[in-house]
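Notebook entry, structure prediction.
Reason for the run: the old model in the group folder had no record of what sequence produced it. Starting over properly, with the input documented here first.
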Amino acid sequence: MDRIQKFLLKLDRDRRSIYIEIFQDIRVLNLEKYDVQALKGLKGLFRLRKGKIRIIFTKQNSTGFILNADFRGDIYKGI
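New structure, fully documented this time:
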C-alpha cells in the first residue's frame, strides 16, 4: 500500500471523496480553483493546500503526478 492510499484511509468517507476529486484535478492539471505554490528550494515540486491537508506533486508534460499527501504538520518531514 502506498502513501496516498494510507492517507486516504485516515479520512472519513466524505473527505475521502473530496480528496479523490482533487487528485483527479491534479492529474489533469485543472488547478485554477486551488491554492497552489511552487516549493522553494525544490525545483519542479508544487504544493496544493486544502484546509489542513497538503498535497505535493510535480508536473510532467500535461500531467500531474502526486508524490505525497498528508496533514500540514507531517507532509514536509519526508522531503
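Summary: The longest strand covers residues 63-71.
The old model has been moved to the deprecated folder.
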